[in-house]
Amino acid sequence: MASAESHLRRRLFELTARRDSLDALASVYASRPDDGAGAGAAEGVEVVDRLSDVITLIEQASAECETEMITCQPGGGRPTEELEQAVARDTALLARGVRMRTLYQHSARRHAPTQAYVERVATVGAEVRTMTELFGRMIVFDRRIAFVPHHQRRGGAAVVRSPAAVAFLVDAFDRAWDLAVPFGEPEHAPVAVDDLRQGILRLLSKGLKDEVIARRLGISLRTCRKHIADLFQDLGAESRFQAGYLAAARDLLDGPGDGP
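Above: the chain sequence. Below: its structure as tokens.
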């Protein structure tokens, strides 16, 4: 048991390092001069400002996809309209024999429209897993083209075609996938709840405010504060500092360097 826990801690620490590296990569792309899509596309990154153009490019990539689509969807449940649009696209992909894997945060398990979407696509072969935190939003087709959010414009995207950058994103996804919990297995629900509370505890120990913790974990502020109150009670803590100290003292934080 001790060996397994040690291995898991190493994997979680590795995932955190990967997330930090991904943030650094995103910062590099964000700092590039915005000289138009042509210059970016020539070097493997095309910046697209308009949502309608992004949708067109995603639909094109989806139509051309032959082997695999992977998506990472942080922030809890997705808007109902997005899910309704995704059902037709995703079921068409699956019908062609394309493998589809999606990562959500644990909080999406309690979002009825997301539950309905997962049930529909899972029946035709989609794989869906959840974990406490995700490294960022993205969609990748055939490990050759990736879409990540625009660094400034809401609804825009950076279209990444650089083989090295796409491989980096896919590797980060695969490592997260290995640590995630299958969405459609009820017996794993207690694990998801425990992971969520452990994530709250870890972010608490870093001194983050309730609003920031809720946003990071894709849950409502009310739910976040309910979990915090329960954690205080379980730990016998009367303050955030004391909760972090007691969690570290009892080795409850989920990775090296995550203590206060």
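DSSP finds ten helices and eight strands in the chain.
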